[in-house]
Amino acid sequence: MTPDWNHPLDSLPATCQVLVVGAGPAGSACARLLAQAGQDVWLVDAQAFPRDKVCGDGLVPDTHAALRRIGVHERVLLAARAALSARCVAPGGGAIDVPGELAVLPRRDLDAILCEAAVESGAHMVAPARFVAPLHDATGRVIGAQLGHGGQTREVRCNWLVLATGATPAAMIAAGLCERRTPSAMALRTYIRHPALAGEAPHLRFVWHRRLRGGYGWVFPAPDGVFNIGVGVLDSHSAFAESGSGKRHKVRNLRELFDDFVAVDAVAGRLVREGERLGELKGAPLRCDLDGARWSTPGVLVTGEAAGATYAFTGEGIGKALETGIAAAESLIAQHDDAAVESDYRRRLEALKPRFRMYRKATSFNHFPGLVSLVIWRAKRSPRVLARLSDILNERRMPGSLLSWRGFKGMLFG
């Protein structure tokens, strides 16, 4: 079907049950489930669809599970390139392949599929429409939003407003829900076509090196002989520093980091030297740890990366964005009064918090890439350790069982 999107701003209704702002994974998942439950849902995005989104594009096991929950897994896999393992590469070049359910699909295509699925379920889509400000009643409860595009504005009143506006803090600031304006981390990527390399590099490739300290580099094979190649600084202490005034400023040049990655990794080097560059290097902020913004206020739920649904250690956020969008929809469907909705949503996000805390602790490995060498050395000699790494990747085991100082010592000496 032809997606019912990119309608003009004046096609928005004066009222609806739920207004979802942001048609990324979180927003589209939320809109789809709400529409399936019979609610009058309007989904808007600041950009006309389909649109690009800076991301690593890796679909890891939690993403696959969430896509199954909203009934679009098969559709996504038909468009994606599947991979059997994540290849983890140590500073010295040693590597292991960690099995998992993995695939790669550019966000332009993934988000289009998810948005189309929401529309098929009965949600209405309008883009471009930018969130300007919330609307309040006399008690201070949010009862809608002012949206804008091209100098025009329109007010839409709703029972609930769901903000799935991503890592850029403008919407959270406008809504009065932002608790941290600077991002948790930064990433940079581009696309390169190299069909001859597609068969030689079928894994999701993760590379740690002392010249990439504080983060890692990646090479992910997308469909049609295209690769997503990029770097990320995945710890705020590496990406930013405090100035004397208390403000934070960027201290790591990501373009230089990308050049370092190309210099130290053979696959990345071949891609850049031999492949066809399909676009410029593009950067994006990341919000991690389910932190940096309030999750709710009467009349509003915050979901996806706006709520910080990205893992600090890996920078992976698609799966958890989907999960938080699903959580927002389920809370709105199951509960009726404000307090119950907010309480239920908080309970669902709090249940995810332990994983985010453990992935935050694991960021120490990004600061000491030599530790990755030891993990890989041990995993190559111990099927038990490799199985534990696979369990972590597939979220059958908490990362603290290995990717913490205690777990690390147990792995080496246990």
Summarize the model shown.
The protein is an alpha+beta fold and 414 residues long.
Mean pLDDT: 91
Rg calculated over all Cα atoms: 21 Å
Distance between the termini: 56 Å
CATH architecture of the largest domain: 3-Layer(bba) Sandwich
- Give the percentage of residues in beta strands: 25-35%
Main β-sheet, in a few words?
A: 9 strands, mixed
What is the tally of beta strands? 19
Strand and helix map with partners:
Layout: E1 15-21, H1 25-36, E2 41-44, E3 58-59, H2 61-69, H3 73-79, E4 81-89, E5 95-104, H4 107-120, E6 124-126, E7 130-136, E8 142-149, E9 152-163, H5 170-175, E10 185-193, H6 195-198, E11 204-207, E12 215-221, E13 226-233, H7 236-239, E14 240-242, E15 248-250, H8 254-264, H9 266-274, E16 276-277, E17 282-286, E18 296-297, E19 300-302, H10 318-334, H11 338-361, H12 364-367, H13 369-381, H14 383-393, H15 405-413
Parallel strand pairs: 1-2, 1-9, 2-6, 4-11, 9-19
Antiparallel strand pairs: 3-5, 4-5, 7-8, 8-9, 10-13, 10-16, 10-17, 11-12, 12-13, 14-15, 18-19
